[in-house]
Amino acid sequence: MFFNVSFGDAKHGVVQVYRQGNPNLIGPRYLTSDGGRTWRRFAERTVPIAAVTYVDGRRMLAEEFGTGLQRLLVSDDSGRTWQPLAIDPRQHIINGYWPVFLGSDGWWLDWQPQSEPSPQPSPPVRLWRTTDGGRIWVPATPTGIPPFDSFDQVRFMDHLHGLLTMISDDQRQAIVAATSDGGDTWQTAAAFDSPLAGMHALGLLLLQHGVRLLAWSAFSAWDPRTGGPLPPGSPAVSTFTSVSDDGGATWGPLRTGPVTAVPYGAAAVVDDRGRMLLLESRRLWLSDDDGASWVARVAVVRPGMVPVFMSASVPGSIYAVAVRSGGAVRIGNQPAALLRSSDGGIHWTEVHLPG
Fold first, then answer.
1. Residue 294 per-residue DSSP state
2. Residue 226 and residue 228: Cα distance in Å, rounded?
3. Is the confidence at residue 331, as pLDDT, over 60?
4. 77: domain range?
5. What are the C-alpha distances in Å from 166 to residues 20, 75, 161, 177, 282?
6. Number of domains making up the chain
7. 3-class SS at 53?
C-alpha cells in the first residue's frame, strides 16, 4: 500500500491509502483536525471515494469510484457530507491531476498525454477555471504553452500571475511557463537544459520560501519514455535548484544539488523554517540557503523501515512514505508505512491510523 497526503491548512489534512498494483482496491481515508496528532476514519459510503484533496481548511474535492462516470463531489464540512458538482470537468480530463486553488479561485489543467513518442505536436491544452471554490468550472483554451511531453505542476501566486512546469517532448529540457492574465496566455520563463550529457529530465517542482520561488529539478540517465534499467555505473538522480525573486518571471542558473541513489526521482520539500529537505533512504539532505549548499544528516527511523520519499510539509510536521524492507529503495510490492517528523526531518515515527 502507499499513501497520498493532502492538507488544507496547518491543522486539517487527509490521508488516503491505495492498494499497490490493484487500482480496484481503494483503501480507507483518514482525517485530522489537529495537525496530524490524531486521526479519524472517513464514514463509509455506498459508492467509495477514490481520491480526495483539500481546497482550504474545510472544503474538499473528491472523486467517486465505481462503474460508469466517476462524479466529482464537494464537501464544505471536512468530508462529513458531500454534493456532486454542478459542472464536472472530469468528464473531459483524463490525466489524473488535481486543481490548484488560491482562495475561491482555482485552475485545472486538462491535457491528453502521448501514449508513446510521436512526431505529432502535443495535444491541445485546456484550462478549467473556477471562482467559487470549485463548484462551477468554465473551460478556456490558453495560448503560448510550448510543446511538452508531461507537466508537473501549476502554481498561482495571485489571481493573475501563475506558473506551469513541464518536461519537453525530447525529455532534454525542464521548462517553466508563466502567465500574467490568469492563465489565458503563457510564455516560456525558463528552459533548463540537461546539465549532463545523456541525462533526461524527470521532473520540475516549484517550491516557495517567502516571496522567493525555487524550481527543483531532477535529471537521470534513465529515460522515462522507454523505461528499463539504469545504465551500469550511472548515478540515479542528479538534482538542481534555480531561484526566482520576481514571481517566476526570470530565473537564475541551476545550482547543483545532491546526487542521490534513489531511482526515478524523489520529491524535495520546504519546511516552515524555509529549509529545503530531500530524503534519500536514511540520509536527510538539508539546505538553508535555497539550494546553494547542502549538508547530509542521518534520518533516525525504526529498524526495518526505509523512507522512500517525502509526501507533504505543513507547519510543525513533515510526512514521508516508507517501506518495511531493509533493502528496498523504492515502493514496489513491499508493505508501506506513513511516517511523521516534528523536528525538521531528523527523527521519524510511524503514523498509526485507526482501524
1. -
2. 6
3. no
4. 1-84
5. 26, 31, 17, 8, 30
6. 2
7. strand
